[in-house]
């Protein structure tokens, strides 16, 4: 790679990975849920057991595509945020404060990620696979793996020089959990996402607690983004789903990370509370 190409590809690749950081962290789509608890954002694992054949999950349990919005909170006391899903036939668009993701049904009924656009600067990841987020059916003992090429775009810049993404997932356990929605059993799904583009890489490990018929109720993630072999970000976060209610209508933050004079992420972010049907208000 030439020095001129590196000057373009470095920030472009890092910006694209920053956009993907948080990818699939908080699935959207409304479902019926138990009554909420008073402790917003609280999450606790009370007991665990090994999964059985009866604990198999469908794609829509793991990645709901029903139109609407879901409110999430982080356990560190941060402001609530919304994840909304809209059907744009034949695909679906999922929006959160970080990015808009284009999802599609696979031929066998699974859910796959085709594109992801950063909300702040428009950086785009195009998955040429596409990348499967949830198979049609996930049973205990299964560990499906999906691999996709990755093209990064930002304005007129475009880089398709060998970017690759890989995602695998498995059912790890069935846990008795306590969340703002109540106390109940949930199936824990562990997923690992790795992505490499020129001069940058990302690894994200995610545990999602899924209540069949309700969908994801809690997500715990660990992620690391490296640019030119340096670690500009290493983050751990836990989010829980809560019913729409009171809280900040909007929160705005500005964030910039510089590595060796390169700006791998420069984001101006606004979090807006959405209506129950997914529209902004």
Structure commentary:
The chain is mainly beta and 281 residues long. It has one domain. It has two helices and 17 strands. The chain has helices at residues 3-20, 59-62, and strands at residues 44-49, 57-58, 68-74, 81-88, 91-95, 99-105, 111-118, 124-134, 137-138, 145-154, 157-179, 182-197, 200-211, 215-227, 230-242, 250-259, 262-272. The strands form three sheets. It has a twelve-stranded antiparallel barrel. It starts with a helix and ends in a 9-residue tail after the last strand.
SSE arrangement:
Elements (H helix, E strand, L loop, with lengths): L2 H18 L23 E6 L7 E2 H4 L5 E7 L6 E8 L2 E5 L3 E7 L5 E8 L5 E11 L2 E2 L6 E10 L2 E23 L2 E16 L2 E12 L3 E13 L2 E13 L7 E10 L2 E11 L9
Antiparallel strand pairs: 1-11, 2-9, 3-4, 3-15, 4-5, 5-6, 6-7, 7-8, 8-10, 10-11, 11-12, 12-13, 13-14, 14-15, 16-17
């Amino acid at each position: 790679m030439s020095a001129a190409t590196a000057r373009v590809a470095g920030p472009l690749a890092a910006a694209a990975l920053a956009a993907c950081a948080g990818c699939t962290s908080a699935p959207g789509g409304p479902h019926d849920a138990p009554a909420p608890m008073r402790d917003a954002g609280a999450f606790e694992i009370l007991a665990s057991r090994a999964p059985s054949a009866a604990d198999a999950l469908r794609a829509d349990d793991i990645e709901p595509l029903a139109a609407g919005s879901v409110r999430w909170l982080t356990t560190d006391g941060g402001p609530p945020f919304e994840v909304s899903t809209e059907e744009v036939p034949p695909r679906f668009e999922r929006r959160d404060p970080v990015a808009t993701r284009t999802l599609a049904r696979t031929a066998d009924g699974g859910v796959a990620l085709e594109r992801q656009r950063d909300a702040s600067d428009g950086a785009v990841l195009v998955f040429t696979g596409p990348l499967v987020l949830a198979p049609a059916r996930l049973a205990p003992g299964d560990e499906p793996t999906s691999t996709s090429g990755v093209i990064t775009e930002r304005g007129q810049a475009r880089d398709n020089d060998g970017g690759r993404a890989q995602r695998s997932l498995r059912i790890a356990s069935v846990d008795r959990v306590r969340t703002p929605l109540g106390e109940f059993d949930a199936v824990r799904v562990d997923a690992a996402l790795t992505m490499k583009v020129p001069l940058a890489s990302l690894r994200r490990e995610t545990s999602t607690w899924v209540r069949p018929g309700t969908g994801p109720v809690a997500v715990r993630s660990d992620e690391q983004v490296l640019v030119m072999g340096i670690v500009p970000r290493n983050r751990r976060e836990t989010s829980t789903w809560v019913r729409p209610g009171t809280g900040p209508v909007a929160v705005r933050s500005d964030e910039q990370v510089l590595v060796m004079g390169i700006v791998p992420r420069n984001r101006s972010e606004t979090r807006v509370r959405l209506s129950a049907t997914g529209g902004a208000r």
